[in-house]
Structures are given as C-alpha cells and as structure tokens.
From TrEMBL:
Record's subcellular location: Membrane
Record organism: Saprospira grandis (strain Lewin)
Keywords (A to Z) from UniProt: Carotenoid biosynthesis, Isomerase, Membrane, Transmembrane, Transmembrane helix
Any one annotated GO CC term: membrane
Annotated transmembrane regions: 7-27, 53-72, 84-108, 128-149, 161-178, 184-201, 208-230, 260-277
Lycopene cyclase domain residues: 54-145, 180-277
Highest taxon in the source lineage: Bacteria
UniProt-recorded Gene Ontology molecular function terms: intramolecular lyase activity; lycopene beta cyclase activity
Biochemical pathway: Carotenoid biosynthesis
Membrane topology: Multi-pass membrane protein
Protein name: Lycopene cyclase domain protein
Gene Ontology terms describing biological process: carotenoid biosynthetic process
Length: 292
C-alpha cells in the first residue's frame, strides 16, 4: 500500500505541478501573430480542389473511409469491437475537445474560416469529427497489426524505450515550460506514460508503439494538409511563440513538432481505453460461459 502511494505521489508531483504552471501561463495575454501563422513551408504540390469551405469535412471523410470499409475484413472483424472503442472515443474526445476550446480561446491556436462553415464553441465541425476519425483509424491499425503480425516485435525493448520516452517528454516539457503547447503536450504525454509504467503491465504498450510508428505515414499527409503544407493557407493556425518552432526555428515541413506528441497522447489514450474495455468484455463473456 505504501509503495503504491509513493508511486502515485511521484506521478502527481512530476506531472501535476508543471501543468499547473502552464495553466497559470495561459491566463496571461498571448501575442497572436496572425500574419506569421499563415506562413508555413510547402510539403508538396498545392491541392487546388481543397480550396473551399467543406475541405476540413472532406479531410475527415478521407481519414476514416478506408479504415471503415476494411473494418469488415474477415480476419480483423473490427466492426465487432466497436462497442469497446466507443467509450474511449467519448471520454478521450471530451478531454481533448475541452483542451481544444481552451487553447483556442487563449490564442495558442485557431482555425481558418476559409475551410469550414459550421462551428460550435469556437471549433469547426471538422475539428469535432477529427477526434473520432483519427483515433478510429489508429485503433484500426492497432487491431490489424494484432491480427496480421501476432509476434510482439518491440516487446524486448519496450521497457527501456518507455523510460527513454518518459525522460525525453519531461526534458522537452521542462525545457519549453514557457511555451504552452509544448509544455502541456509533452508533460501530459510524459505523465500518462509514467503512470502506465508504474501501474500497467505491458499487455499492449509495445503493440501501440508499432501502430503509432505506422500511423505516422498517414499522419504526415493528413496533418500536412491541415497545417497548410498542401493548400494555399493552413486549416489550423498556430501561435508560433507557443510551440517548439519558437525554440528550434523550424517545423517538420508545415507540421509543428508538438503535433507528433499531441497525436501520440491522443492515440495512446484511445488504445488504452479500447484495450481496457476489450479485456473487461472478455472477462464478462467468460463469466457467462462459466455460469452456463
């Protein structure tokens, strides 16, 4: 019991106090540089057909289209596991939407009205859908890898890799403590991974790492479009003073470096909830079988 208390104390101290500092920073006025938020490097040819108000909606449809169709694959049967996916989508999506609304109001980022029509709480419809389509696609990749690559290839290095990520996330989070997006994203990711290492055995962590590595390829395309790498203007506008670009002086193409860890946390939380409810469903099913 005492050991568990110490673990919880360490996790709350390392993750909680810096996040309170970031919240304090966010209540200070931020300098929004509208002109600079539009200036991003190109990542390829411009998609002239995407210059309209429904573009963000199209991006979401394109993100989920093939994962949804392939959900009925006979080996994966992902459609049978939707009931395990939905609770996590709602809980994680709710948290990220609240984060999104808050950061938009504080001037950490904003959305280009050129690429959407309807909005709610300051977020375009496409942004609300983003927290369904992107996690759905990633959890689908996670399940496909379980079905088609049964060997857990990253299991031998999972422990050192996880600790390396925790230290790396915390180091960058503390280094950029005055940059709201960087500090909040990296410290949250580090805290969640630390909690995982202290309290959750590696039933799926190394499997998620592989799914995340593979999901980076479609992520570069989708996020490249959202950040203006393939359009005349970005869909999502960033305050450069609040992200790693302020420290490094450049992005990954048009994509802020922070987005990679934002995506890591978003997808990891969804996979964690999915695996939790899947395991809980399996136990419930076994108990009914034993009764019979």
């Amino acid at each position: 019991m005492q050991q568990q208390t110490k673990k919880w104390g360490a996790a709350l101290l390392l993750g909680g106090l810096p996040l309170l500092w970031v919240l304090y920073l966010l209540w200070q006025p931020l300098d929004w540089q509208a002109e600079q938020s539009m200036q991003v490097p190109a990542m390829g040819p411009k998609l002239s057909f995407g210059e309209h108000a429904y573009w963000y909606l199209w991006i979401n449809i394109g993100t989920i289209f093939f994962p949804f169709l392939l959900s009925f694959d006979k080996k994966v049967h992902f459609y049978k596991k939707w009931r395990f996916l939905l609770p996590g989508l709602l809980m994680v999506g709710g948290f990220f939407l609240a984060w999104d609304v808050f950061f938009t109001q504080m001037g950490v980022w904003d959305f280009n009205p050129r690429y959407f029509t309807y909005s709610f709480l300051g977020l375009p419809l496409g942004e609300w859908l983003f927290f369904i389509t992107v996690p759905y696609a990633c959890v689908f990749i996670h399940e496909c890898l379980l079905a088609y690559i049964p060997k857990d290839v990253l299991a031998p290095i999972e422990r050192p890799l996880s600790w390396l990520l925790v230290f790396g996330f915390y180091a960058i989070g503390f280094l950029g403590l005055w940059m709201s997006y960087t500090a909040w994203t990296f410290l949250l990711a580090g805290s969640f991974l630390l909690w995982q290492l202290l309290f959750v055995p590696n039933h799926y962590r190394s499997r998620f790492y592989l799914a995340y590595l593979i999901s980076i390829f479609p992520f570069l395309l989708v996020n490249g479009i959202l950040t203006g790498g393939f359009n005349q203007e970005p869909v999502v506008l960033y305050n450069n003073s609040q992200q790693l670009q302020n420290l490094l002086g450049f992005r990954c193409g048009s994509i802020p470096w922070d987005d990679f860890i934002y995506g890591f946390l978003l997808l990891f939380l969804n996979v964690a909830f999915f695996e939790y409810f899947k395991k809980k469903g399996a136990k419930l099913s076994d108990s009914f079988k034993n009764k019979d």
